[in-house]
Amino acid sequence: MQKSKSDKPKSDRWAANPEKVKPFWNEKWAPVDFGRETKTCDYEISSFGRIKSVDKLTGRERLLKGAKARGGLIMLNQKLRDGSTGIVYIHRFVAENFVERESEDQEYILHKDYDKGNNNWTNLVWATEEDWKVYQKKSPIQRGRPSRTKNYKLTETQVRMMKKLLKRGKTKRKIIAKQFGVSENCAYKIEKGIRWSHVTIDDDDDNMTDEQILAQVAEQGKNS
């Protein structure tokens, strides 16, 4: 008896006609680069802030919700082939790929409606430090936020972690900056002591690997 097409294994049917995520009108997608090889899927993020996985074998696409960090930011958090953790903050990825940046002084990314879950490119804008300060004063959700220094959105604990990673030099500055949700220029200024110069690290405090530190940052998710 001859098998019908429906009798084929699902994996074969998906390979022949892989499921695709239906795009919205005028929606654009860009591939995510974690800096290391992913496991079974590649990942893409759209100008509308949507996330999808693409199976390397079958081409099947699947929408992902992402993980919510403390403070409301959405991130894509994946275990990579070498066992390390890859983290991309959706708002920063969308801004870097789909939102025009007028000057290098605009290191901050603001959500126009103060909703950190709304990462549509039309809701994001690059801003200077002064713009950010004005934005924060107008925020309808100021209560309950942890106290921070004037140097923007990192806590001293995070800066200490970042300085450890930068000093070791095992992980690229660009990757460190992305995982902390800041620009590479901001990470450079922290490394050179231009910012957060009062925060120091102990030379003998070296009992955590880079991967463990970055995993801890992902779990805490305190950047905003």
From TrEMBL:
Family matches, as Pfam families: HNH_3, NUMOD4
Domain HNH nuclease per the UniProt entry, residue ranges: 88-130
Gene3D superfamilies reported for this sequence: 3.90.75.20, Homeodomain-like
NUMOD4 domain location: 27-71
Coiled-coil blocks: none
UniProt GO molecular function: hydrolase activity, acting on ester bonds
The protein, known as: HNH endonuclease
Organism (species): Phaeodactylibacter luteus
